[in-house]
Please model this.
Amino acid sequence: MNEIQELKDRREQTILEKEALERELVPYATALEDYDVMQSLEDNLRYKITDKKREVGYRERDIETLDKKIHRRETLANHQNLMAGYIEAITTWKADEEELNQKRNSISTRLEQVRQQAHEDMAKARQAETEAATAYAQAVAWGDVEGEKKANDDAQKAAKHLTSAAEHHRRQQLIITALEHEIVTIDRHIAEAQKTRSGIEDQASRLANIVLEEKWNAAAVALLEVGGKLWAARRLIDRDPIALTNLKIPEQGENYGPWGWSDLSERSYQHSFEDVLAM
Model:
């Protein structure tokens, strides 16, 4: 039976124990919810209820610990497939984000072009009307009948052109509004893509952390094995292994206690003379 299955069996057994304790506490539900009722019970019964309640808490804590152990081991067992999936998903979301940014840039460029064109068209139409009015005023001032007639015709044409330009400007404003709305929509999609990718990157980083913790621990154990043989060799030649007494390697993952010189000393007695020579 592998370690993961053993842990799952322990969890199931612990769950059964917890449920059994909870069933025993059912008759005392009122006492558990009301302090005064609890205090009115006999001492032995009150202690019994309190003890069982405490045992339920212990089981809940054990179940939580077992869940974490199971999750960690299942993650480690499947870490290659998980990481491949994360990397593929990150690549896909990056490509989506890049595509969205390209669309945004294209629309932004078009938006600026439309804005500029709308401004220029209206400015030209207003300028033409102003120039026609000025020419008319000058013709009147100089008594130029022909000039006055021509300027009047030009003013009417400019007025019509300005009306047409205003209508065109109105349509351009609708286009501008639509383009601006599209940019807002794309920005929302970009933010969603970034958020999703960030979440996947976080999951991938956590997975990498777990795997690297295990690699660290494996490398530390390998070093301890070599150190144990070195300690044994020092003892064989009556040489004090004082240089090794400063060893302190922090264990990563589920346990946080460091390995030290005592671990080397303990391992040294596990190696025979032949082991030391085999190096």
Q: What stands out?
A: The longest helix spans residues 145-236. The helical segments are 3-25, 29-33, 35-39, 43-77, 79-142, 145-236, 261-268, 273-278.
